[in-house]
Amino acid sequence: MSLRTSTGDSGPVVELEFGFDDPEYPFVGASAAAGCRVELEEMVPRGDGAYAEFYSVRGAAPSAIEPLAREHPAVSATVIERYDDGGLMEFVVGGNCPAVGLAELGALPRSVVGDDGEGQIVAELPAAYDAEEVVSTFQSEYGGELLAKRERESFTPLFSQRELDQALDRRLTDRQREILEAAFEAGYYAWPRETSGAALAEELGISQPTLSEHLTTAERKLLSLVFDG
Predict the structure, then answer these.
(1) Residues 119-129: tens digit of each pLDDT
(2) Which pTM was predicted?
(3) Pick the CATH number of 161-227 from 3.40.50, 1.10.10, 1.10.3470, 3.30.160
């Protein structure tokens, strides 16, 4: 049975908030066992039903959480970065993950947090979906308590400023970003243009063909954020 309604995509977004206390879910169990806070930063599909979930850890060393993953056969954990009071970890999950379950039902997880054994997920559901059916289907498989259901006028932006900066850092070289920012600040993208390609190239100390190459490459990479899924 489809969980979509027949009314199309227009209408307010439904924000769903769920609470969890089942330690079988890694973001809940890890926060309880280590007495810390874990928060989902990014979720990336890996194929064959697996997802890579990147969690920030605050208030405990990642090494205190790594052994917990071995208790969950469908989860593997890797420390990506260590901080003074925590770190960044990658969990590869193969199933039984509420955040993945919500995404597969059409609800986009916006916040997934485990704090000292208390879990919370906030997700946004497009108007094209039947909220009651989504909640019922989700709870029948993953449990959890529906804490709130709210209407919002529109979706939260897909990228926060931090996420956008990270995406740019992954795609652009330092030189490409430097030249793109210089072009923007000089009014190269204004209409009418406030500076010419020749003047901008001279200011940057490069040739016009080199300027065009850098800008075209950077522009293509930026467009890939929108058009490459």
Answers:
(1) 999 999 988 89
(2) 0.63
(3) 1.10.10
